[in-house]
Amino acid sequence: EFMQASWDIEEVQARGIQHLASFVKDKSAFPYLLTCTEVITLAMKTHIDALDLQVEGCTLLLEILSQALEQGVVMALDESVASCLLHTVRKHSENEEFLSMLCTLLMMVSASEVAAENLRKVGIIPDLLSILRRFLHNDKISFSCCAVLWSLAVSESNADQAVLESAVPVTSAVLQKHLQDGAVAESACSALWALALQGCLTDSDYEPTAALLLDALRMNPERAVLVKNGCLALASLVRLSETAALTILLDPKGSGVELIKDEYHLHLKEPGVAEALCLLMNEMVQYDEVMLDMRSQKMEKLLSEIKLQFPFS
User: Mean pLDDT, to the nearest integer, of 70-87?
Assistant: First the structure.
């Protein structure tokens, strides 16, 4: 009430945020802090030029959201909160350090389907792409922005087709730049999978994207989630184009089929990986030439192994 009574006084808002932050460590205060997110974001929007207030507000929101995720509480932040956050992103789009924190916040917010939809509605995707282009070198920003893109692209609504299509080259550039950083590569693979599912890739994208995804699998063989999502992304590409299937077979860096076998044996206990590999193989055998090649590489043997390993799946 104290903050709401004096929106225009920056010091009141700053002191209010600081005082709310003092309750973060008190578990019994958590349900009350959950109700304060709108007040905090509105204070940030009203005093958009006050960087200290922005940082403190963002830090407090991160604390509240972290606790919510730990406790399994879904915070479906409404459109006004999404709009405030977008406002902050635009105002501080040059401040790399603060953006890194803000993008982490957006990633946590987008974990809720409702909040992700609200971020999409206020038009945050072009801003995310602009941030990625400018700070491609920054692993934290790249990781968070790709995770947000995945959340926004994977939703049912396809209203942003043209905008999502423009995300393909940027996401590919992130993956290319951070191939050896497992966490960022995993996030970028997931985003490419969502973009492929939404039909955002063009004919000229299939071959280079398939080759890039194979590189990600080769560089990070131990990361089960990356392998799973990378294979699902490849399956989506193969469904759309024989070119992608032939790229997997004929990749100059090594046979994609051998890579599939190696990944399966590395993740024997991971049903999600096996399922993604089966889905990829299922898409590949729709092309006669590809199926003949897979036969010659004894893929039936691998399929029999999978069937024995997961008899009840």
Answer: 84
Delimit the domains of the chain by residue range: 1-75, 79-189, 201-312
Which pair of tokens denotes residue 161? Answer: 């087709």
Is the pLDDT reported for residue 66 higher than 70?
A: yes
Average pLDDT, integer, range 48-69: 92
**Which residues are within 8 A (CB) of 298 and not within 5 positions of it... i.e. 6 or more apart?**
none
Q: What are the structure tokens assigned to 213, written together?
A: 């995804």
Q: Which amino acid is at 146?
A: C
Helix (H) / strand (E) element for 274: namely helix 271-284
In whole angstroms, what is the distance from residue 254 CA to residue 252 CA?
5
How far apart are alpha carbons 45 and 70 in whole angstroms?
27
Kindly tell me if the per-residue pLDDT of 155 is higher than 80. no
Calpha distance 178→139 (Å, rounded): 8
**Using an 8 Å Cβ cutoff, are 92 and 54 in contact?**
yes
* CB-based contact 223:196 (threshold 8 Å): no
Quote the CA–CA distance of 307 and 302 in Å, as a whole number. Answer: 9
Residue type, 305: E
**pTM of the predicted model, to two decimals?**
0.90
Position with higher pLDDT, 251 vs 137: 137
Rg for the chain, CA atoms, rounded:
22
